[in-house]
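4.2 Preliminary Data

To establish feasibility before requesting continued support, the project team ran the inverse folding procedure on a target of 277 residues. The structure was first converted into the token representation described in Section 3, and no sequence information of any kind was made available to the design step. The complete token record follows.
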């Protein structure tokens, strides 16, 4: 099995992600577990072996450990630094519960597991980032036992422009900085129908897709920290101390002038589930 590609960006941003972005998406990530059961409403059989693809710092993996007290969970991510934080966070549970988490550093489209290893595959906010969503979903199908289930969430295209981002763009433009390059990725889903179709084509039946929305209200101080220590970390880390302080002061002033509505982020999501055929 080839070694996973290095992930210097995600490794570098792991601590900032854990502090500033992970808590924002955690409620929507944990809600994946609500979509893991059969579509017909029958009581699901508790899974024993669970794979969390793109586990990041472990929010969904740890939620699964809490939700199913007999399950073993494997948290997989391309970033070893992210997984180190997951291992740190799971130690907040009992020793017995922490022992039910294993980690694996590997890409989503080349899973280092035998066919039919897991009862349930879950994933939160990673299938918009992978080089090939088609390959990642097919790999998820491959490692599931017959009748095993998948449940995942990612972003839908659309949503209103977040008011705080206008302030950030204007201030950075004022100081002569170009907008950040758009990350190459498979992209956000165009619709719930597109999400369901992609899952069916990967070999899943009884597929259902449900639209949702992540809503998070930022404080000006929290959003400034998010921008400087995570979202635009590479830019801010290269600034001289005086220039950084000036830019941060200007950003904070602009953010403090925003209304509560402009500081409320609303991002459309889609939850998808299905059963391995």
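Position-by-position output of the design step:
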């Amino acid at each position: 099995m080839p070694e996973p590609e290095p992930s210097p960006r995600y490794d570098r941003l792991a601590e900032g992600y854990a502090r500033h972005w992970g808590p924002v998406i955690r409620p929507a990530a944990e809600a994946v577990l609500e979509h893991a059961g059969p579509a017909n409403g029958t009581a699901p059989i508790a899974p024993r072996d669970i794979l969390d693809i793109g586990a990041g710092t472990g929010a969904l993996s740890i939620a699964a450990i809490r939700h199913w007290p007999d399950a073993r969970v494997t948290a997989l991510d391309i970033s070893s630094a992210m997984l180190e934080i997951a291992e740190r966070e799971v130690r907040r549970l009992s020793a017995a519960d922490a022992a039910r988490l294993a980690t694996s550093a590997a890409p989503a489209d080349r899973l280092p597991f035998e066919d039919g290893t897991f009862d349930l595959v879950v994933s939160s906010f990673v299938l918009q980032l992978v080089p090939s969503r088609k390959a990642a979903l097919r790999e998820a199908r491959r490692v599931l036992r017959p009748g095993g289930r998948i449940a995942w969430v990612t972003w839908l295209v659309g949503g209103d422009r977040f008011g705080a981002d206008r302030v950030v763009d204007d201030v950075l433009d004022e100081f002569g900085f170009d907008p950040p390059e758009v990350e190459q990725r498979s992209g956000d889903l165009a619709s719930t129908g597109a999400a369901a179709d992609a899952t069916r084509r990967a070999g899943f039946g009884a597929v259902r897709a449900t639209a949702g929305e992540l809503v998070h209200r930022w404080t000006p101080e929290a959003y400034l920290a998010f921008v400087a220590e995570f979202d635009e970390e590479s830019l801010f880390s290269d600034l001289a101390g005086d220039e950084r302080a000036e830019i941060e002061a200007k950003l904070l002033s602009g953010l403090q002038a925003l209304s509560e509505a402009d500081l409320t982020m609303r991002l459309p999501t889609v939850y998808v589930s299905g059963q391995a055929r």
